[in-house]
């Protein structure tokens, strides 16, 4: 979901390259599908290796932290050495992580696999987003926004199906993903490079995260929307399947992964449907849907109704996509082009820390309070943050004036 850096030097295409855009979008879906594939297996890992919910959320957080560090360090590397070399290196790294998943026989190996996967995903995210923009300046940004969300949802669903109905539940999904990535790696050789290499690759590895002064006020008004939406995403990817199985009483990975499938996929549809709405309207719709969705989800937990729980998840998914998109579109135009990359880094620091740290807190809380009481408190916090963002957007009297420097060359 990371937009490309605005500092790269790319070759101008006489016309959009639909085939190239499709290739990069499918590759992005594959990477994010791989990132969510372990989620339906977490219950099996817990049963086999006997670790707590706290350790489960730590495994998830290790992936997020590794992704965040890799994204901050390598975010603009492809602007200097080209898209294809960065993508190729990330494919190799992802295949290596899948190999570790395949052979993992303990919690330590599972965590190592997640860290390697986080690094590969963080490295490739900005390069693929930039490559999609290079391929089609109109459709590229939209594909860069929805492909990761669809990937996360589809990966969890396919993994859930394979774990439930196919043999070798702890191995097959990783082997299939590795084969797909090998094929996609071979096809990369047929893709045209869109960047002219230029000096500064080593200097570009210095992490940059900065919030320009004109952006700080508007960001404070929407930050609670960002935190609430990503906190919900972190919870669904770590403890969501366990929650569904607990509520339903059915220990079935396919049933458990439905919450992981619904939230990002509905979020992607939300982004696609609401992309033309003004940012303030998107934030209002998103936070409103988060409030309603979390309320319905918690009612489903209280009534022990999976149908109600998943209905709330779907409604919250609308809010997840709309609130995130609205918040991003609120702050990004306010920064000059020369500072957008650093602002994007700071924005994603907030996003990923919200997903990982709050999910870890939730995991620790389950050890002391139990899963269902923790869910009530966690859901209440998400709803309260969404309400704060909704009131902030509702009472906003005027849209902040666009930064004049944004319209000048970097």
Word description of this protein:
By secondary structure, the protein is mainly α. Helices cover 77% and strands 0% of the residues.
Measured as a percent range, the helix fraction is over 70%
Mean pLDDT: 88
Poorly predicted ranges: 1-14, 398-410
Q: Biggest β-sheet, characterized?
A: none
Q: In angstroms, what is the radius of gyration?
A: 20 Å
What sort of overall outline do the alpha carbons produce when their principal axes are compared? globular
Q: What percent strand? A: under 5%
- Judged by helices, strands and strand pairing, the structural class is mainly alpha
Number of DSSP E strands = 0
Number of helices: 17
Terminal CA distance? 23 Å
Order of helices and strands: HHHHHHHHHHHHHHHHH
Topology:
Blueprint: H1 18-36, H2 42-49, H3 53-74, H4 78-81, H5 83-103, H6 107-135, H7 140-165, H8 172-188, H9 201-204, H10 213-238, H11 240-248, H12 253-256, H13 258-274, H14 279-303, H15 306-331, H16 337-369, H17 371-394
Protein name: MFS transporter
Main location: membrane
Subcellular location: Cell membrane
Can you tag this structure with a few keywords?
410 residues, 77% helix, disordered N terminus, disordered C terminus, MFS_Transporters, transmembrane, membrane, MFS, cell membrane
Care to give the gist of this entry?
This protein is an all-alpha fold and 410 residues long. The chain has helices at residues 18-36, 42-49, 53-74, 78-81, 83-103, 107-135, 140-165, 172-188, 201-204, 213-238, 240-248, 253-256, 258-274, 279-303, 306-331, 337-369, 371-394.
């Amino acid at each position: 979901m990371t937009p490309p850096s605005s500092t790269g030097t790319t070759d101008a295409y006489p016309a959009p390259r639909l085939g190239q855009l499709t290739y990069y979008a499918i590759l992005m879906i594959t990477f994010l599908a791989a990132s969510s594939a372990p989620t339906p297996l977490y219950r099996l890992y817990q049963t086999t290796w006997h670790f707590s919910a706290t350790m489960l959320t730590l495994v998830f957080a290790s992936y997020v932290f590794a992704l965040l560090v890799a994204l901050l360090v390598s975010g603009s590397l492809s602007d200097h050495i080209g898209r294809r070399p960065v993508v190729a290196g990330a494919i190799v790294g992802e295949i290596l992580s899948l190999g570790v998943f395949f052979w993992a026989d303990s919690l330590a190996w599972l965590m190592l696999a997640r860290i390697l996967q986080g690094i590969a995903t963080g490295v490739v995210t900005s390069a693929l987003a930039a490559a999609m923009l290079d391929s089609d300046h109109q459709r590229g940004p939209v594909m860069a926004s929805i492909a990761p969300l669809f990937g996360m949802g589809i990966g969890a669903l396919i993994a859930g199906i394979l774990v439930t109905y196919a043999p070798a539940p702890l191995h097959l999904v990783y082997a299939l993903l590795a084969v797909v990535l090998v094929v996609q790696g071979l096809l990369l050789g047929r893709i045209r490079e869109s960047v002219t290499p230029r000096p500064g690759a080593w200097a570009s590895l210095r992490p940059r995260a900065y919030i320009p002064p004109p952006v700080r006020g508007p960001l404070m008004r929407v930050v609670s929307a960002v935190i609430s939406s990503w906190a919900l995403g972190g919870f669904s990817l770590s403890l969501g399947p366990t929650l569904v199985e607990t509520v339903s009483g059915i220990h079935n990975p396919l049933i458990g992964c439905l919450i992981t499938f619904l939230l990002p996929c509905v979020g992607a549809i939300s982004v696609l449907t609401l992309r033309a709405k003004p940012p303030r309207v998107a934030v209002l719709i998103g936070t409103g849907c988060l409030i309603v969705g979390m309320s319905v989800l918690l009612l489903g937990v209280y009534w022990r109704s999976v149908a109600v729980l998943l209905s709330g998840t779907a409604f919250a998914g609308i809010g997840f996509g709309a609130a995130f998109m609205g918040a991003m579109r609120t702050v990004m135009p306010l920064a000059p082009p020369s500072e957008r990359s650093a602002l994007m880094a700071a924005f994603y620091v907030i996003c990923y820390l919200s997903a990982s740290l709050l999910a870890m807190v939730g995991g620790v809380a389950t050890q002391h309070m139990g899963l269902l009481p923790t869910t009530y408190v966690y859901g209440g916090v998400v709803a309260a943050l969404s309400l704060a963002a909704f009131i902030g957007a509702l009472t906003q009297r005027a849209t902040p004036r666009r930064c004049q420097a944004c319209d000048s060359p970097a």
